[in-house]
Design a protein that fits this description.
With 328 residues, the protein is of the alpha/beta class. It is 43% helix and 20% strand. The strands form three sheets. The chain has a six-stranded mixed β-sheet with strand order 4-3-5-12-6-13, sandwiched between helices. A five-stranded mixed β-sheet has the order 9-8-10-7-11. The longest helix is centred in the last third of the chain and has 22 residues.
Length: 328
Amino acid sequence: MRGIFTALAALLLSAAPAGAQDASSVGSSVIWPQRQVTIVVPFAAGGSADLIGRILQQHLQAKTGVPIVVENKSGAGGSLGAGFVAKAPADGYTLLIGTVSTNAINAFLYSRLNFDVGRDLQAISLLVRFPNLLFVNPRIPARTVPELIAYLKSHDGQLNYGSSGIGTSSHLSVVMFELATGTKMTHIPFRSTAEEVNNMIGGQLDLALDSMTTTWPFAQAGSVRAIAVSTPQRATAAPDVPTIGETLPGYEATAWQGLFAPAGTPRPVIDAIAAEVDRIWKLPDVIKALQAVGGEPVTDTPDEFTAYTKTERAKWGEVVRAAGVKLD
């Protein structure tokens, strides 16, 4: 999948409009940007967060003529890059591509973070939602969420589930499912989603709830059976697959990504950046690129995104505590 993200980023770069225009303005006094902007991606190059950062880079630079730099700062599940931005000057020139992990889960998962995501980072806009796909080994007779819940309850503690690592969205999404259904399974963590799927195909794994971007092709091929998606709405790529929330109202386990700035960044600057994000995210080539990798492009206001991240932190905090997971 890394190759797909890289290829799409290259395609977007070649398609970006040439020639600089005036920098963005809000009102009569705020002009942003006036100098280089650094977009920090808290993961290695080639992944979905990197693709998001480079889409912003290409379109902002093409419009404003100001250098926009993407800097990959990976480590500690994304917390190294998030911490870097949290301590950067609050002027709108160092931004973060934050994720559900960096800005909702990690605060409860890691015991040695030297920053507070709620206090030290300002939400600008949600950017994309990536659904997780609930899928099972074809030998499991369940084909719907109600059937799966009934099967789990009749085989309490006998089934296992995989994830792409302890404390990841794929792990905690199943913990949330267990809490919502009163069921219990044995967790088997793997090093990647690909390894997880291969073990299911090989017959060693019963269930998983992981990135639809990676797992949907296997479901289409019949190697695994798709049951539902974890987002509030059905996925564009699979409109016939129901959401978990259709059976369990309120269930949402979205692998979202959004844009953040250091706390204290002036509100007019935040609004100027949010306006640019909204403009870029309405471009047909951007929408097409995000949907091609299973993403659901979306924007909102800084206030809406602030409220959403607060709700997400509270929700995932409860799930992490229920899972009893803690990392250094």
